[in-house]
Amino acid sequence: MTIRAATRKDLDTAVRELIYRSCLRLDEGDFPGWLELCAPDLRYTITAYSPEIRQEMTWLDHDRDGMEGLFKMLPKHNSDHSPLTRHASVYLVEVDEERGEAAAVTSVVVYRTALDGGATDLFAVGKYFDNINLEGETPLLAGRNVRLDTRELGIGSHFPL
Amino acid sequence: MGRTAEQWKQKPPLPKTHYVDTRVYTDEGIFEEEKEKIFAKTWMLACHESELPAPNDYRTYHHPAGVNLIVVRGEDDRVRSFFNVCPHRGNTILYSPSGNAKRMTCIFHAWSFDSEGNCVGLPREKAGYCSGGDCSVSRDDLGLREVKTQVGYGGFVYVNLDDGCEPLEDHIGPALDTIIEQIDTEPLEVFSYHRAVVNTNYKLWHDTNSEFYHDYLHVHNRLTSMKQEGYFERKMIPYPNGHAEVGSQEVHYEAYEGGKGRAEAGFPGVEGNPWSLIDLFPGYSYNLRASVLRVDSQIPLGPNKTAIEYRSLGLKSDTVEQRRQRVLDNQTIWGPFGRNLHEDLLAVDGQGRAIQNGSRYVLHAREEDSTIHDEVGMRHFYAEWSRRMGRLAGDPTKAVALEKPARA
Ligand code: FES
Ligand SMILES: [Fe+2]
Predict the structure, then answer these.
(1) Member of which family (chain A) (predicted)?
(2) Which of A51, A143, B83, B255 qualifies as a cystine partner to B223, CB 3.0-4.6 A?
(3) Closest in B59, B217, B345 to A156, CB measured
(4) Could you say which of B50, B193, B198 has the minimum Cβ distance to residue A50?
(5) Which CATH number is B112's domain given?
């Protein structure tokens, strides 16, 4: 499917599928597979607003090389390997056919399931603000801002959300 | 060969200062005593002045002795603190963690207070308190409870619940001298704040900040520090009142995947990429890594629960580009998704679990001429803890009188 051939409805569906697939790949720990969904000019950020200091904060900010480096180093780190499970609902998709891109807003809930015993706890809630490149054969994630409402994240995480 | 139950329970064959009985991390009675003998009598770090830049700006603070406080900048620019407790029927006055209030008004019956703690508004005052002519209550008796407050050492707001306490300068002493030029030449500003609530004892987090033997936990530190020249010469320096410093070392950030030097955005007097860490009794740390000052402050919530507040700071005068650099540097290893902070928290969370489930003694016994892997920083902390508590950390069941800190 190219953007010219696609109907608006096709594009909307393709964007939603891209977002859901990005969640599935991260849930599976398939980081190379997640990167395949991303454009070369990817920018990935995790941000939050702090009412304590009344400021915007950035807790992760990487381009594509940065994300590759992060994934490459993961096995060398001591990390909590309790799996994270993302539950996403794509709220809005706005396709700009002229510019060959789309913007999407997705509500995300992330659960953490303890390796020992399997109890599941809520880890974080927030939204994905995504920019999607529609110029190629398949849509690609060019920008993802994980905007967290949750700021108390316990021991934190080494994994992108 | 593994040890038997009997052997496991035996005190380690070491000097009394070189191990800790894990009951100091689990016992409810000891925790209550710490509240009374340590937290209620020591300077605690409540927030940073940049969190209340304008007159009538406020921040709330949960004091570990079990009191909620309001920290507020007065119209005279002085920072004061009060119990966040309405003198009427005891409601919480301010619900938001920060804000600006010319009058701090209790939502319940609308009594209001100014930034100096005076009661300045009381609906239907005369009708309720002066019905017979004479007033039964004076507003002077309805002010807020004020708490000793001092700002300093990088613009941090310190509070002390003890009205008869020593000045902050006497408590900190020379402990921050090494980095005072960096943090006190021009105003700093907090650019990241978060809190981690962890099921562990606050002392265990402080211990982690006070020993560098655990650089083995961090691949980042193994590559950027341990493998670099000068690492094993870093000295641990104990200061009076239980504080300790880890001497500075040049860090090679480029040795980690995607890393680079931090010289573009520094602090006054910083050259290159030095790293200094100073731990203050009973639970704060100033951690300066060239472009970012991270300050940890703990709010112990129970024997096995602590809220650790993390602030990252740059200079107030930062350009947009300098601030962006600091934010990027900060997130690599610090913040909730940083590579090092998660590892430290993972370890201290594991300690919390082990200490509740079978751990009996922990060892602080490495001696290496006070260099980086010497565990003198922790020994020094527990000497002060023992003195204040009147109990040896290695044998906390007995009361002892310790005038001066036991030898570290
Ligand atoms: S409790 Fe605050 S005004 Fe009554
Ligand atoms: Fe560490």
Answers:
(1) Belongs to the bacterial ring-hydroxylating dioxygenase beta subunit family.
(2) B255
(3) B345
(4) B193
(5) 2.102.10.10
